[in-house]
Amino acid sequence: MDARAILSKLRHRRSLNREELVWFAMSLADGRVSDAQAGAFAMGVCQVGLSDVGRVALTLAMRDSGRVFDWDLNGPVLDKHSTGGVGDCVSLVLAPALAACGAYVPMISGRGLGHTGGTLDKLEAIPGVNTTLDEAQFRAVVAKAGCAIVSATDGIAPADKRLYAVRDVSSTVDSLDLITASILSKKLAAGLDGLVLDVKVGSGAFMKDLAQAQALATALTKTANASGCRTTAVISDMSQPLVPSLGNALEVAEVMRVLTGHSKGPIVSVCAALGGVLLANAGLAGDVQVGADMIVQAIRSGRAAERFGVMIAAMGGPAKFVENWTRFLPEATIIGEVPAPKTGYVTAIDGEALGLAVVALGGGRAVEKDQINPAVGISDVVRLGAKVSSKGPLAVVHAARAGDAERAAQAVRGAITIGPKPVAVPDLIVERVG
User: Fold this and answer.
1) pLDDT < 70 regions, the chain
2) 9 counts as catalytic
3) One of 83, 119, 131, 151 is an active-site residue; which one?
4) N or C: which terminus of the chain carries fewer CB neighbours within 10 A?
């Protein structure tokens, strides 16, 4: 078997079998195929597609191209993945809440991508936190805190790492087959007993319409379940930021307000929906509603905050972060309100535009090597349907320089539409798949 024969089949629009997909994935990992051949493979899969069986085969082969964890713990090993949105800091609330309910959460997460923020970047806004742990450190934190949120090592799904880099420069990022294999190969390498997928839909998501979100949710759940991991997807609305802040330290502040009982809001509802599914599927709750109630109680009682604090300290952060979090989070040099241009109702919010404004402030990366300023961002963003008065605030900009602040303010005004009449706000939880 060689790459040319496999690529010839794709060029002639013939489906690949399991053995060919496994060979190609392993060859991506060990270097037997060139970058040119990897790019041709990605384009071929885009054009021809994979069968359900082929999608599972590619996913498992990419998973098995590197380290696959196994665990010996006194509870189920669970995780969550989001397809990306703005103001989405669910992982930082859900992971410790699950840990407080008896699960273990070894969450291998990522950095900011495009207009969406990265969970690792948010965690690293806390001074001292190290998300790059070796395996022994990773296992120790999971055992101690019940959860750990870390970056993937080079040994996790190396075939995906190689293919992902090629997809980015070959215009094949949006292949449903390759998206599915990429997401699941890394998640399944963590040795999970259960997984929930938060598939976002709306202006702040990568999937802008419901049909796209449903197709992705179906592909992910069918593939993950066929791969032996009990998986459900929840499609949730991202027509506005999930929390009213965008930016790393600002989103951590929102998380701490929730964990310490000073805020509720949509993020708790999303955590309950996702966590309820996980706990029910894993047998820790009698049904999804009981599981959702358990998550809410873990947050309200402070048990989730306690687990979060143990995790932060174990990963190098302040020992008393939960008790004194306002002392530790960085603040921007310039903080100012963005006045509304007229009186009316908020009828639309372009979440992607807001996310890109945060990137322009220095809160995200335009290219991989960019350094992030954790203090900058946008807070106090108005909600859909809210009434605003002329000169009243639409949001608050946190910037390092005056010029950056003014450009961000212009972006905010352009991203928020004000109309004469209120609009219906979409349901936060759209549907469950799988």
Assistant:
1) 112-117, 168, 366-369
2) no
3) 119
4) N
Residue in 161, 186, 200, 398 annotated catalytic:
186
Backbone φ and ψ of 105, nearest 5°: -130, 95
Report helix, strand or coil for 296. helix
Give the active site residue among 55, 59, 79, 109: 79
- Percent of the chain past pLDDT 90, that is, above it, reads 86
Token pair recorded at residue 399: 């910037």
pLDDT of residue 112: 59
Cα separation of the two ends of the chain: 36
Catalytic, 245? Answer: no
Cα Rg for the chain, rounded, in angstroms? 22
Report d(CA 375, CA 140) in Å as an integer. 30
Does 109 participate in catalysis according to the annotation? no
Q: Tell me whether residue 81 is one of the annotated catalytic residues.
A: yes
Q: What is the pLDDT of residues 241-266, one digit of tens each?
A: 999 999 999 999 999 999 999 888 89
pLDDT at 388: 96
User: Is 67 a known active-site residue?
Assistant: no
CA-to-CA dists, residue 345 to 246, 319, 392, 419, 424, angstroms: 21, 44, 12, 5, 11
- In the set 27, 59, 65, 82, the catalytic residue is 82
421 is catalytic: no
389 counts as catalytic: no
Spatial distance between the Cα atoms of 426 and 175, rounded to a whole number of angstroms: 28
Query: Per residue in 176-203, is it b (16+ CB within 10 Å) or e — as a string?
Result: bbbbbbbbbbbbbbbebbbbbbbbbbbb
Tell me if residue 187 is catalytic.
yes
Spot the catalytic one: 55, 63, 80, 162: 80
The reported pLDDT for the residue numbered 167 is 83
- Chain-centre distance for alpha carbon 14: 34
- CA-closest candidate to residue 305, choices 325, 291, 285, 290: 325
Given the residues 167, 222, 230, 398, select the one marked as catalytic. Answer: 167
Pairing of strands 416-419, 429-433: unpaired
CB 118 within 8 A of CB 111: yes
Distance of alpha carbon 241 from alpha carbon 7, whole angstroms: 42
* DSSP structure string for 90-117: HHHHHHHHHHHTT-BEEEEE---BTTB-
